[in-house]
Amino acid sequence: MKKTVLTFGLIAGAIVSLFMVLALAFKDAIGFDRGEIVGYTSMVVAFLFIYFGVRAYRDNVGGGTVSFGRGVAVGSLIAVLASLCYVATWEVIYYNFTPDYIEKYREHAISKARADGESAAAIAEKTAKMDRLVELYKNPVLNAAFTFLEPLPVAAIVVLVSAGVLSRRKNSDEGVRALESQRA
Predict the structure, then answer these.
(1) What is the pTM for the complete model shown?
(2) pLDDT at residue 178 greater than cutoff 70
(3) CB within 8 Å of 90: residues ≥ 6 apart
(4) Which of 63, 69, 75, 137 might form a disulfide with 159, Cβ 3.0–4.6 angstroms?
(5) Of 110, 101, 89, residue with least CA distance to 138
(6) 14 pLDDT band (50/70/90 cuts)?
(7) pLDDT exceeds cutoff 70 at 149
């Protein structure tokens, strides 16, 4: 299981990290709003390797079968490893190349609230929330924790779908084979 998790986790991590680097390199052209779309799309693409990892585990280690629980375990480990690569990449980029990213995001969010015609009270509330976020991001541990949480919803969906689609039990396979042999 270790080899499967390491292989597919590092591939997924490299893909999501590469997309992050590319998106941040072109962040001015992409913009914050489209940046979220690009970011989450890249997570879906990278996390497709969870499916391939669970399938490889099923075919190579499980002898063609894997339970739903084991599929979730393998997929979750791949997702955690890929997410750790994502966090490591973000920490390096954030602290070394774009330390003003969160301040720029703060300004964008407040400007967007103004452009959307939100009330003064709503803008003041948004400003207070964003100021708090800027303060929280100064703490490297919280910064890493927030970054780790970003891909988890996408990863959880892909893990559950992959485990559900790929789970096979020996008994059900034998029953299917028996039906197929009767038809032939």
Answers:
(1) 0.82
(2) no
(3) 20, 143, 144, 147
(4) 75
(5) 101
(6) very high
(7) yes
For residue 97, what is the DSSP state?
Answer: T
d(CA 7, CA 10): 6
Q: What is the pLDDT of residue 177?
A: 55
Q: What is d(CA 158, CA 160) in angstroms, rounded to the nearest whole number? A: 6
Domain boundaries, the chain: 2-169
Cα angle: 153, vertex 155, 159; to 5 degrees: 120
Question: Which of 47, 51, 60 shows the shortest CA–CA distance to 1?
Answer: 60
Distance CA 91, CA 83 (A): 12
Confidence of residue 33 (pLDDT cuts 50, 70, 90): confident
Instruction: Quote helix, strand, coil % in the chain, to nearest 5.
Output: 85, 0, 10
